[in-house]
Sequence to fold (451 residues):
Amino acid sequence: MKRTQRRALGLAATLSVAALVTATVTASAGTESVSQDGEGYYQVSLEGNRSLSQLKATGADITRATSGGAEVATDSRGAQELRDRGYQVTYRSSLYAPVPKQATRAAAGTYYGGYHTVAAHEAHNAKVAADHPTLAKVHDIGDSYLKTTGKGGHDIQAVCITESADKACSLSTAGKPKMVLMGQIHAREVSTGELAYRWIDELTTSADPEIVQLRKTRELWVIPIANPDGVDKVASRPDRPISQRKNMNYTSADEAKCGGTSAFRQAGVDLNRNSDLAWDPNEGTACGQTFPGVKAASEPETQAVQGFLAKVYPDKKDDDYKAAVKPGASGVFLTLHAYGNYVIHPYSFTNTTKAPDAAALKTLGKKMTAFNKYRLGTAGETVGYTAPGGTDDWAYGRLGVAGYTFEVGGSSGTCGGFFPAYSCMDGFWEKNRGAFIAAAQGAADPYGQKG
Ligand SMILES: [Zn+2]
Fold:
């Protein structure tokens, strides 16, 4: 296609978005399928000598590399800023799925059609432990940023499930091999906390022989909400959740400085860029979605999660991240994210250094993707960008734990993106239940799996 034709198409798309946005404002306050500020997914074409890293340097929230460019989550202002810099930007779809009006305020403790609030997760954790005292135990593994500063906030909770939990689940490396599943370190990735919630219910109530066996032979830890302050922010606008990805540490820049809060510009620290393995100060600016913080592991949430993982997993790795894991390594760690339908294994911080145990990580990963049918690979092989300072790289690179990122859900449609309709949860659960079980089964000998 000629450049002028493409320009014309881009302009047409821009105009049609403007028309849609106006229509929503004037005619339809109910369905909110296109938000007033144009928050949505946009295609940015990279032509000539423009690169992904140049686009990243603008602070754009790149959600994935696409053929001919990248997809970014932004709003009308962000799209215009990119156009002013000479990028060709085309609106693709809204951030939000239509939410039935009666469902938005249906059950107490839920938002956006059924997703559980932080308070509801905490009540659920407490009830599970009370209902199953020999099977489940709740630990407080540290404080959220707001709690450390006396501005509300939360304890970060980890639920441990195993037979004789009253005697086990002691936050130590002793005992059964460990599987840890973590949700919502990125607050707006709302399906992930919900999958953790269902996994807790499955592990504590199912009579499926595979689950019974796991309760006998594994310690199954679940951190449903790793970023509770961020999730409070997301859920504070129940019909059209706020696109808060990061934590609520506004020291480096607050909302006024960032010009509001949206997928375009947002205050806080990206907790999945803050771990102290391959932490990169150049990963993002204070209002960008991948701001890594002022130093490695600066955030209380990061310290809580790293501290917890170091307590429960035996350390089977030299500090040199290029070294292979030592014999006897055990444990699997899953961090749930959205979106793209990927299972990602280390390393994610680089495209050039291969994890020394990459082949074994792929073998175990395939046992998971046999169930969810997601694409398996490193970040470079899947999402197409690198992610230094991520939790899964840290678990593998520092402790020798087989760490994986799940990117739940597709990239478009009602069940795609950061805010899938709540009705999509049954499908996500059906796909991933078997993958979680496979991960737990692999925890005894993650690097010794047969293909
Ligand atoms: Zn994420």
Remarks:
- Confidence is low (pLDDT under 50) at residues 1-33.
